[in-house]
Amino acid sequence: MACSGETQGNHAGLMDDIYRYQRRIYDISRKYYLLGRDRLIMQMEPAEGAHILEIACGTGRNLDCISRRYPGRSLYGLDISEQMLATARGKLGVRTELAQGDACAFDATSLFGRDGFDHIVMSYSLSMIPDWQGALREALRHLAPGGTLHIVDFGDQARLPKGFRLLLLAWLATFHVTPREALAETLETLSLSLPVNIEHASLFRNYAQIARIHLRL
């Protein structure tokens, strides 16, 4: 179910409160534990002229990396937090079209002047979105035929030492982050009703998980 207007407003306010000051140190601090983002970007290999959207783009770190690695592509970023978008605008300038919006329900045509993206990126975002299954369905709705949704996020940490895992989960909870342990199962269920090919793998002893969902032509 898509987020209601009231829920969207509450979540936007929460994200602004969390990142009002953290956005200034976000990139330098998160590089040590948001693992797998660069692997996702290296695996993308978008065609020349591809249209790439990142949902919950935050400070624009990933879009900046994509722009440098794959010049000549059209880039778009969506985030619910105006605080994070302020940092992204300063970083990306005219290289990316940015817009404020809810990952659970957004109109890409009105925000970006197009719909149907060749690649959509969701990097450490599902774990912060209350209706994460709704956000996943919304992302797939905006894929062009033949397009690919790329996901990287926290895993279940099942293969990590128990004490470390418990401390990590408690620390993540202070930032309203909940690892989506059912992601693989949810993707498998989606594959029963959509023409998709799915790849899913665990990284770093289940610390993180990475997935690609390809919408067949």
Automatic annotation (TrEMBL):
GO terms for molecular function: transferase activity. The keyword Transferase applies. It comes from the Bacteria. Keywords: Transferase. Residues 52-147 form the Methyltransferase domain. Pfam families: Methyltransf_25. InterPro entries: Methyltransf_25 (IPR041698), SAM-dependent_MTases_sf (IPR029063). This is S-adenosylmethionine-diacylgycerolhomoserine-N-methlytransferase. It comes from Cohaesibacter marisflavi.
